[in-house]
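Troubleshooting log. The previous run stalled partway through. Resubmitting the same two chains, unchanged.
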Amino acid sequence: MTNSVLVAVDGSDGGARALQYAAERAKLGGAKLIVTYVIEWSPYSFNTPEENAERHKRREEEIDRATSGVVEPAAAQLAAAGIEYETVVRHGPPAETLIKLAEKFGVQQIVIGRRGQSGIKNLLFGSVAGNLVQTSPVPVVVVP
Amino acid sequence: MMRFFTALTAMLFFALPAYAGFDDTINEITAPIATAIGSFVFFKINVFGAALPLVVLWLVIGAVFFTVYLGFVNVSGFKHAIQLVRGDYADPDSPGEVSHFQALATAVSGTVGIGNIGGVAVAVTIGGAGATFWLIVAGFLGMSTKFVECTLGVKYRQENPDGSVSGGPMYYMRKGFEERGMGGFGKFMGTFYAIGIFIGALGIGNMFQSNQAYVQLNTVAGGRLDGLGWLIGLILAAVVFMVIIGGIKSIARVTEKIVPFMAIFYCVFAIIVILMNFTSIPAAIGNIFSGAFTGAGVQGGAIGALIIGFQRAVFSNEAGIGSASIAHAAVRTPEPVTEGYVSLLEPFIDTIVICTITALVIGTSQVADPNFAGDATGVAMTSAAFERQISWFPLPLAFGALLFAFSTMISWSYYGLKGWTYLFGEGHMGQTIYKLIFCGFVALGCMVQLGPILDISDALVFLICVPNILGLYFLAPIVRREMISYKERLDRGEIKKYSH
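Second attempt completed without errors. Output:
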């Protein structure tokens, strides 16, 4: 099995730093990167009938935006650097989805960026990094 | 802007009591119209001395037929419905679409409304404690009707060019009948239903809701809003206007998120009140059962109680009306029948759980003090039952009633609009006209007495049931075939279960 690393991107600076970090290490160690964009979504939310009727359209739009806006530029960057990669765009609860994908691809490591959100927000919603570190089956690198 | 509204409201409150007679005028005009419509749609036949509206009979026979025809799917499918909502069968490789849970939650938000608080009180006032029993039976049978409606709603929905979906009875009638080689009849039925739903939306999903929200506000205000229904009506209409025409969707989204919690909050406090009345519980339950079969003190006896129970149950859970199938049609699934299973849970939650709880709150209060509510009916009666034990509860109840009413109005404005666009196309101008009419009726609902409102709303609801149930009879074999095929594949393990 080749050495592979899952790196989470989301269009933020933290995501860009995570990609940067993972790319540098992948180049040194010859690892394959799984560039992942998780679109935050829960099957247990409450919507209006109109939101539901338009959901399919919105979903396509969200995937398009993530793909063309974030994942494709990242892929281009990796291709230019000669790094092997695969891309995934997926809806779901962030930490849980990253773990599922990590298991699916059998990666050795997950790299994510720190969001640096405020204490109160962490208290209310928890942080992706925090959840991930607590539950991941593989080592997690949180890039500051 | 907000400050302007507040100032305006305050001014009107103090300066305009002289115009309080306005509501009376409106009442005088609408009452005869309501009676006329009511007597037409509620053509009654006499059964053992009780007047049985034909439409109620129509619904009951439909629900019984579907229950038997589908082999008591309301019982046998219950467990599977819960598994589906839990997401046990959701494909983890294609998340992000409307989930079964979301479709159910949206449909339930639309049905859990004032009917659950005020409608039950109406049932108990007119039909006695025994009406509760028949209300529950109606909820139980209604589960099968919903199963048929919602399966068809998903199966025959329409994907619009812009990627959104439209579904509901008008679509399943047109396409379903076409499949059976009865295209012309299907078109007629689709149109009939579409007219029914866009007019009907003005009653059950509109006037009844705004009326009862106003009544509860007035109760809390100690009657200080007497005669000012038109003002509350205008304010409510303005908020609905902001959402459905002004496009301030955030209000709708916030409501949609609060309503489920309000429903839970309501149930918890209702159970607390029932427990505080615990010495009255056995007698209250006894009354429900004895009243169901003897109908003591009720006009028309047991049959009278049965009629009222059924009528109010449909009004609350909307089984047979077809509205839920409009909401459920948004789910993308290769197995339309799964949405049928999920929708079984709606009458269960709405009627068998929430309505029963309300009925017990009222019933136990009645046992303890037969005259606890004075001559109050509807939501005011329920409020009085809560107040007996928890003096401050009418206030949060008024807030809850307002929210329930509001979310139901928003849902129904959408259902009605779907009927309208089916008839007149997706044109922007036409949609705005419909929405304006809708807002007008929100205001009107607060100006009219409960009696005429109920008459009009009931009449309109049943106007929608007639084409819908008729269509369901014709299309039920399709649902049955899908259900049997699905069950066989489920048993053989061909339907993959992805447990979490």
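Takeaways: Chain A touches chain B through 26 residues (CB under 8 Å). The CA atoms of residues 17 and 107 of chain A lie 19 Å apart.
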